[in-house]
Design brief:
The chain is mostly beta strands. The chain folds into 2 domains: about 130 residues, Beta Barrel (M1 Pyruvate Kinase, Domain 3); about 70 residues, no CATH class. About 15% of the residues lie in helices and about 35% in strands. It is built from 3 helices and 17 strands. The strands form 4 sheets. It has an 8-stranded mixed sheet with strand order 2-1-12-11-15-14-13-17. A 3-stranded antiparallel sheet has the order 4-3-16, with no helix packed on it. It starts with a strand and ends in a 13-residue tail after the last strand. The C terminus is likely disordered.
């Protein structure tokens, strides 16, 4: 198995950027979801209720500054566009605490499951896509670990999917049948909620080892 794709979403609920190399820390990919949208009451707005945010792309510049469609995230132009979508008082907020993640900091998908799903992998918004996995083998991975060079990842459970999967990442056209299909075919769950045990840098093409036996990993997270 190998790392097939890497994705980061610097602005939560917007489109992400595809990477060749990235560093992982305790909270997943460095720079992932460090900006989000809030309404005037401080509630986080997402594309579940405001899908037009998916039409914008978040990225980081070489200095690590978040961008939206290539412009600084805190520019007046971006602020105005956020209000158009999110309503009066909506704004972008930078926050790097663990609470910024809906579940866990890392979402891992596999090429076998994506092929079985049969739709654009971007609908699943993964951070890591692992290639060389047969069919729906990922469903047997919860409780196991993934070793990618210096990085050790723990696999917690399968991700419960939401209505965001129904939106085409390019056209934003909604097809609720895609989300319904996930529930009919996969019990509503696709891809894996994961956490970082040991951080480090990984790249597309790196080998991935599945460690199924907990005894092969010490309490500190290092191979025994």
């Amino acid at each position: 198995m190998k790392v097939m794709e890497l994705w980061r979403y610097p602005v939560k609920t917007m489109g992400g950027e595809r990477l060749s190399t990235v560093r992982l820390g305790p909270l997943g990919l460095e720079g992932d979801r460090i900006v989000h949208v809030e309404d005037p009451r401080g509630h986080v707005l997402t594309s579940r209720s405001h899908p037009r945010f998916l039409g914008h792309k978040g990225s980081l510049d070489p200095q690590g500054i978040p961008l939206v469609d290539g412009r600084p995230w805190d520019s007046p132009e971006i602020a105005a566009e956020v209000v158009v979508i999110g309503g009066p008082g909506a704004k972008l907020v930078r926050f790097e605490g663990a609470e910024r993640f809906d579940v866990l900091p890392l979402l891992v998908a596999t090429d076998g499951a994506i092929a079985t799903f049969g739709h654009d992998l971007r609908r699943l918004r993964p951070n890591l896509v692992i290639g060389g996995v047969e069919g729906m083998a990922e469903r047997d991975w919860p409780g196991a670990h993934l070793r990618i060079g210096p990085v050790l990842i723990g696999v917690q459970d399968l991700r419960q999917r939401c209505i965001m999967t129904s939106f085409d990442p390019d056209t934003l056209v909604q097809d609720k049948g895609i989300t319904q299909g996930i529930y009919q075919r996969f019990e509503g769950k696709l891809a894996l909620n994961c956490f970082v045990i040991e951080g480090g840098e990984i790249s597309v093409g790196d080998s991935v080892e599945l460690l199924r036996d907990p005894a092969t990993v010490t309490d500190a997270g290092s191979p025994a």
